[in-house]
């Protein structure tokens, strides 16, 4: 439980280890009560028994401390018990006065216990620590060496700025005084380092640099030199200026150690002269520029050459560790300095590191490849490439850490000369590579193939297609998007890309991402295949894959088929057959698939639009990839920098986080009423709010991200509609009129039925279904749709035989926009149509645009809901749907909206478990909600991985490893509500497993805001419960 800020320098902790030896050999063994208590704790059969024993002991100690006449023996015994209890992980809330009072005692045994307990129980900001500053200073400046060591060790562990103001001058005097014992001066150096880190003003280069030079030149004790070198590293790492005079002294120490001159036996580690001091000397020199004096340069070069040429591998592991520590620091020094014969030293460094690759010890091989990766540079890459074959063999090593290092090294050593060999090796390895490494392997292979494909574009295309085909499940969409960009910019590849894609599809390549890429190539470049490959043939092949693909892939295939219908050789018969496919999916539950199907049907099968809209289906223009940095390279650079956290972009908005918006035409809002809005331009792709007449000026939102190719993102109609709008029959005037559904006919068949093959049968009308009922029953499982919408931005909210409501949403900061797509499925006009919010919610501003009171048959309109989180809240307001069917009773359907506070959460990752549980205690003071639940069977089977995925889906950042119980999982996020003045409201979750039943979990949420805690728990349970 000793945190990083409490531990202090390693040397200081070693001091306490030595001091504690006295406790174990003299004090603790003679304390019967303490030994009995420790034995009771060790013999406790359960955690509950241990807790009970600790509580009993704490009550006894509290009672004893009320007695002012405690003996010296009792004081030490009870303070040591408190120390032991604290080290077990329990909080100690009393007894600090007794601990501090022991420092003022006259006996060394009492001082020792007081100093040890103070260093562990208190940190530098604790108020009780101020009470002992004077006592500690008296011990430090006194004449008793044991007391000086105790005081210096305490300050080196927990000293803060107040200590630096009081005792810094005294510590400097002790360090520079040759009459004081070396053991005290060593601790003074580490103590001064701690104080310097807390207050840089205590050491001024003009006055302190000469003293450092004197210490380095005149001091023979290697222990003091080790402490002084640690101090020097701490100083020059902040600012080296003024300390250039230390370079000769450091070089002299290095030479002394290299020659094993005047090195006491105590500082020979397996025959190596003080390897830790050698490492520190080389580390110090890396902070300085290359010295101008040739003598100093020669001294550094000699030592480095000696280390590089005389370091080998021995059987003793400890000696190996020491030798290699010095070697790697020497390599780092070579790469940081600009030496006259640096090229030869770099070559020697590469050779020394390369020798490690043939060793049978995995740790040494790992270190060798790590070192070679670091030294890869234009002037060393040729030498590093000499080990290429050995590194390729390491891709098949039994140790996955070595395999990862081999991949990193191959990536770094690659250039135009060896790119073909390395990429081919990586492709062969891809087939057998572990799942844990395939994603990184595929990404690096794609980057290398593109980077070194100049003059050999066809080779790049072949590599990219093999990569996507073999590793599709392990690559992101960015990889195949980038292939699209590069091929689109290279006209000479268009025909080859389409031909290879067609051949692979005929070989039954069913990898999803490859099918997407092949569909794009055939849709864009299929017309270049010539008369031997008619559009009907590859359209039918794409349809075969359509039937077994995911909705995301189906969207791209639909776009490709729409473009194929405009290729030379495509006739009205093909367009009619494809129109049947579009018609089948015009009522799909997948909103994006439905929108594309409707738009493509209108373009290809309604009123001569095929000829008028041919320009919409023209091939995509060039992406101009040469002027843009590859997104794959950016992603790889982020991984290499270990930037795991997403960059948070806070966009400034005029008028604060919630700005008023002018009401749209025919809006019923009163003038001057502030209405929450996004405050940024049209997050949903430019679709304005429909007016009360139902006229929609625009299309649905674009779904593509940065760099997504056409067909992978938004439908092409939205991209070029403005260019041809005046010449085309307006599809929005009768959006669903061409779907083969007319008054008197039932609605189209639901997508749950098997997909009909329009390319293998003649055109036939859609199968009939039962007519609408007077009392509509939902045709979908509304609860399942609501569960999906808790985690997804897009989906279906409600559907019955007459009405369908789809949803698309987008969120940024504390604001969100939700677009409802309200469609009339019935053959008659719906009247008295209304969509209203029911009930206000404190903390959430909501504004719903007006809905036309009449909805014509087969028509769809859009309604915008704007949300802004001004404060914490429990749940979004309800939604009420009303409409009337002629000749039937009015319909009123209450709907629930899944837009709780989890929608506004941002990721939070604590640095350690202590930070999380400190925040948990703070949040629990506001509100804590706990519930024991039986999770869905698929969650129970998936275990913690499924729990983690469920938490991520509702924007709670999983934090594995934080909870001491490995079978439990924690998560955390925060929101900056609009009225909070930028204050972060944290929402934390803890999912605890039942040891006896894998399907039972306790889900607890905590937040400083009660409504947030309840709302976040509701969102989590929506993904866990059946």
What does this structure look like?
The chain is built from 39 helices and 16 strands. With 1026 residues, it is an alpha+beta fold. The strands form four sheets. Strands 11, 12, 13, 14, 15 and 16 form a six-stranded antiparallel beta sheet that branches. Strands 3-4-5-8-7 form a five-stranded antiparallel beta sheet. Strands 6-9-10 form a three-stranded antiparallel beta sheet, with no helix packed on it.
How many separate helices? 39
Oligomer: single chain
Number of strands: 16
What's the overall geometry? Answer: flat
The mean pLDDT is: 80
Which range best describes the helical content: under 10%, 10-25%, 25-40%, 40-55%, 55-70% or over 70%?
A: 40-55%
Q: What structural category characterises the helix and strand content?
A: alpha+beta
Biggest sheet features: 6 strands, antiparallel
Report the portion of residues in β strands: 5-15%
Q: Pick out the low-confidence regions.
A: 1-26, 642-706, 710-753, 761-774
Radius of gyration: 36 Å
- The termini sit apart by 40 Å
Feature tags:
5-stranded antiparallel β-sheet; flat; disordered N terminus
Write the layout of secondary structure elements.
Layout: H1 4-7, H2 10-27, H3 32-42, H4 47-65, H5 72-87, H6 96-103, H7 108-121, H8 133-141, H9 145-158, H10 161-176, H11 182-198, H12 205-218, H13 222-236, H14 246-258, E1 268-269, E2 272-273, H15 275-285, H16 294-310, H17 317-336, H18 342-354, H19 362-375, H20 381-385, H21 388-394, H22 400-413, H23 419-432, H24 435-451, H25 457-471, H26 477-488, H27 494-506, H28 512-525, H29 535-546, H30 551-564, H31 572-584, H32 591-605, H33 609-612, H34 631-640, H35 716-724, H36 782-791, E3 794-799, E4 803-812, E5 815-824, E6 831-838, E7 844-848, E8 860-869, E9 878-884, E10 891-895, E11 906-907, H37 913-926, E12 927-934, H38 937-953, E13 957-958, E14 969-975, E15 985-993, E16 1000-1007, H39 1010-1024
Antiparallel strand pairs: 1-2, 3-4, 4-5, 5-8, 6-9, 7-8, 9-10, 11-14, 12-16, 13-14, 14-15, 15-16
Helix pairs in contact: 2-7, 2-9, 3-4, 3-5, 4-5, 5-7, 6-7, 7-9, 8-9, 8-10, 9-11, 10-11, 11-13, 12-14, 13-15, 14-15, 14-16, 15-17, 16-18, 17-18, 18-19, 19-22, 21-22, 22-24, 23-24, 23-25, 24-25, 25-26, 25-27, 26-28, 27-28, 28-30, 29-30, 30-32, 31-32
